[in-house]
Each structure stands twice: as C-alpha cells, then as structure tokens.
Amino acid sequence: MNPLDGVKNYQVYYGHPTEAILKDMQNYDLVIIEPLHYTKAQVEQIKARGTKVLGYISVMEVATWNTGLMSKLQSGDFFTRNGQRVHYPEWDSYLTNIASPHFQGLLLTEIQNQVVAKGIDGVFMDTVGDIDNEHLNNPTVLKQQRDGLVNFLKQARARYGDIAMVQNWGFDTLETATATYVDGIMWESFNADTIKSDAWSQNMIKKLQAVDVKHSVKTLTISTRLSADSHKLAKDSGFIHFHEADAYVNWNAGLVTRTQDAAPTPVAVTPVTKPATTTTTNPAEMTATKPAETTTTKPATTTAAKPATTTTTKPATTTATKPATTSTTKPVTETATKPVTNAETAPKADASTDKQAESKQKTKAELKQEKKDKKEKKKAKKHAKKHTKKYAAKQSSSNDHYAAKGKMCGKEKYKTAGFLNFFKF
Q1: Most CB contacts within 10 A, which of 247, 315, 382, 422?
Q2: How many Å apart are CA 199 and CA 404, to the nearest integer?
Q3: What are the tens digits of pLDDT across the range 310-341?
Q4: 30: which strand partners?
Q5: d(CA 284, CA 279)
Q6: 3-state secondary structure of 168
C-alpha cells in the first residue's frame, strides 16, 4: 500500500511554524516541511487529525553555508569532473556523489535524526533530478549514480521500513531505476499554459500514469501560473496538485478546509488567487485561516513559552541562512514583565503609582522586544530576498526545458525553490 493513497491536497512550506500555521496544516492531507524547524511535539500536533508529513533532505547537492554537513564530507562524497568539483554558483552548492557509501551513510543519519526521530512520516528528496541533468550524456557515470541512489533507497527501506519517499524530478531515473523503491515523484513548473502545448510534457504525463499503474508511484505537481487551469489539468491527469504563490517561504492559509465532521479524506478546493475564500461558510474558522503574514506578528504563547522548542528548532548550522519568519524568537512578555503588587493592602494613591511603574516596565520590555524583533525581521528579509532571487532564476530557466522536446529533463537543470532553504539537513 502506498502511504500517499488518499492524499488529495498538499502544501510545501519551508519556513518556521506558528501556532496558527500548525493548526491550519491539519486541514491538509499532506505537508512537506523543513524538519530542522520542528520539534517532535509540533509534528504530532500537525498529524493529530490525520495529516501526513514529509521532511526535506537534499540528495544530490550540498550548499557551502551548511558547514555542519560540509565538515563531515570526504573528498569522495563530491562528484568531480576533470578533477574538479561541480559547483553551482547561483546556489553556491556542490554536486554530490550518491555512489559514495560514506555519503549515503550521512543521508541515512539525517533521516534518522530529523525524520524518524521526530515522528515524520517520510522524506522528500530534493535534487534527484541532477542525476539526469548532469550525467545523461555519460552512460557509465549515469548508471553508477543511479545504482548509488538505488542502494541508498534500499538501505533506507531496510532501516526505516515503510516510510514515505518522494523524489523531486529525475523522470528517467524513476522509470529506469527508482520506481520500485519510491512512493512519489514531484513535477515542479507544472503550468497549464506550457504543459498543454508541449509534446514532451504530454508524453511524460502518459509515462508517469503508466508508472503509477505498474509500481504505484504518485505524481505531485506544482504550478506557479494559472492556478485553476493547472489544478484542473493535474486532476484530470490523476496527479496531486499544489499552486505555489511565493516560493515556499510563506504559509498559504485557507486553501482547504476540513472540519471535525468531514470524511477522513478531505475534498480539495480549487486554488484561487485569493486564498481565504473557503472560510466564508464558517465564520468561526476565519481566524484560523488567515494568511501566515498576519499571524506571524502575533506569536502563540504556547510556542514561545517552551524552551525546548526554541532550542531544537534553531540548530547552529541553519539559523544563519534560514529566514526567521515566525514566532520562535518572541518570548512571552505578559507575565515576565508584570511587577507583583498587592492591591488589597496598598493605599489607593500607591495603587496608582504602581500602575504607572508597571506601565513603565512594560514599555521598557516592549521596546526591548521591538528591538529584538526588528533585528530578526531584518535578518529574515535578507534571507527571503536571497531566496526569492534564487527561485526566480529557477523559474526563468525552466522555460528552456520546453524547447528540448523529447530529451526528458536531461538538458535543463531543475531545482526546488530551496531556500536555505533547500540544501539543508
């Protein structure tokens, strides 16, 4: 049985969670997250109503900012061509050698620490498409890398059983090597205006449908244009669709609703340009489906008050590159800054003085918090800007793919919007 059976809607989100986001995630059949931002308790909260969770890992690339992982890599873990490592300057990342047993071991450890240990249902394996993109013209190396990936998948199955495994791109690799080991494949840039008129894409739809029939491999699609048309095309093709509006860095609330009385498998609402349209029939749910931009300014006290949450979601190797867009950096100020007063025994005049003192102390605390928040927002804005530029470059490059008819994705480099994002463990 495929763990993705019954999944009709999903969302990809690589930012930090807030209490409102965690609650809204329960409305989806599936969410794909950056596991470094989450504690086991938060994952359990997401899954409380049956939502499945996949954790992100990068399989074929490692970024230089990820000093923790870089320090563990050996020379043989990098793929070299003519004696030189293959470097992608636009993302400042290096192509890895999945055939390296040592590198496979590092990935398996990441799955254990960030996925299995946190109760996450499976892994979303980014950058698998690099195998086809980089090695299609060298059959010997291509087979070596595909065999290495298969060996890694076999070990993951042996260690972790039936966890869900979804690869990003690598259509040729799926068809020839990994179909019997993975549960799904993601097709980014699934935009109706190009997919409908492109012969390669139409042929690929048929191939993926055939792979699903033979091996039960579900296709997850993502569009960035023509939300309604792309969603319909994906649905008609038997694919599971998500419309990405902002490069995975913001949670898009209100796209689907699921109530306590609903059937176990919720009905997906066709994405539209205004995400909150599904909440009008239930005013009580309107606060839960506000876009993430509005909820991040009001952190949930339960998240901020848990020291364990803040320490586990801010690893030393990732905080420098991941935008802190949520409430994890905002401590609770309601009780910490209020002075203890005894109104019953104090004279009325003193009570007034106490209130002024209390107000003054609150003001100092608020100013201190505002200064801290401003610093965090500045950092987040810097990283978000870098990520947006990266994502725009990816989307621009994807247009070239449609001119390479019949060449699968071997000539065009496809990346996820990955921030920090993407090449992080």
Answers
A1: 422
A2: 10
A3: 333 333 333 333 333 333 333 333 333 333 33
A4: 10, 52
A5: 9
A6: strand
CA 43 vs CA 48, 256, 257, 324: distances in Å:
9, 19, 19, 19
CB 55 within 8 A of CB 413: no
Q: How far is CA 59 from the centre of its chain?
A: 15
CA distance 70 to 231: 39
Beta-carbon contacts of residue 124 (< 8 Å; ≥ 6 apart): 32, 54, 55, 56, 57, 166, 168, 186
How many CB atoms are closer than 10 A to CB 342? 9
CA distances from 19 to 66, 184, 298, 326, 327 (A): 28, 29, 10, 10, 9
**Token code pair at residue 76:** 């043989």
pLDDT exceeds cutoff 90 at 146: yes
- Distance CA(262)–CA(281), nearest Å, equals 14
- Checking 196-203 for CB contacts under 8 A at 24+ apart, the result is 196/233, 198/402, 198/405, 199/405, 199/406, 200/401, 200/402, 200/404, 200/405, 200/406, 200/407, 200/408, 201/402, 203/406
- Looking at residue 418, the DSSP 8-state letter turns out to be -
Q: Is 87 helix (H, G, I), strand (E, B) or coil?
A: strand
18 pLDDT band, cuts 50/70/90, is very high
Q: Which two tokens stand for residue 71?
A: 């320090």
The single-letter code of the amino acid at 257 is T
Question: How far, in Å, CA of 132 to CA of 60, rounded?
Answer: 11
The pLDDT assigned to 58 comes to 95
pLDDT tier for residue 3 given thresholds of 50, 70 and 90: very high
Amino acid (one-letter) located at 52: K
Beta bridge partners, 54, equal 32, 122
**What CA–CA distance (Å, rounded) separates 32 from 54?**
5
Look over the chain and give the mean of its residue pLDDT values, rounded to a whole number: 74
Per the CB < 8 A criterion, the answer to whether 285 and 307 are in contact is: no
Distance between CA 166 and CA 183 in Å, rounded?
6
Pairing of strands 10-13, 30-33: parallel
Bridge partners, 85 (sequence order): 80
As beta bridge partners, residue 125 has 57, 167
Residues with Cβ within 8 Å of 281's Cβ and at least 6 positions away in sequence, in order, are none
Nearest to 319 by CA among 57, 36, 125: 36
Query: What is the token pair recorded at 227?
Result: 């939300």
In this structure, of 54-58, 138-142, 285-289, the range with the lowest mean pLDDT score is 285-289
**Nearest partner of 235 among 255, 249, 221, judged by Cα:** 221
